[in-house]
Sodium/bile acid cotransporter 7 isoform X2 (Carlito syrichta), 85 residues
Amino acid sequence: MRLLERLRKEWFMIGIVLAIAGAKLKPSIGVNGGPLKPEITVSYIAVATIFFNSGLSLKTEFTDGRLHASACVFCSDFNQGSWWK
C-alpha cells in the first residue's frame, strides 16, 4: 500500500524518467520528420498547452476584470495596426 501511495505522489517524476528512458532506447521517434513531428508539436502544440494550463491556474478575481480589459486593448491595437499596412 505504501508503494502505491508513493507512485501516486511521484507520478510526474516517474513519467519524466520513463520518457527519457524511451528517448534513449528509441531516438528515431523524436527526430525531425519522424512520427512525432517535433517541428510542429514543440513549436505549436506544446506552447499552446503551456499557455492554456497557465490560464487555467489564474484566480477568478483576476480574470473577472483585468483580463477582459487587456483582451479588449489587445484586440483593438491588433485590428488598428493591421488596417494601416
User: Anything to note?
Assistant: The chain has a mean pLDDT of 78. Residues 1-57 form one domain.
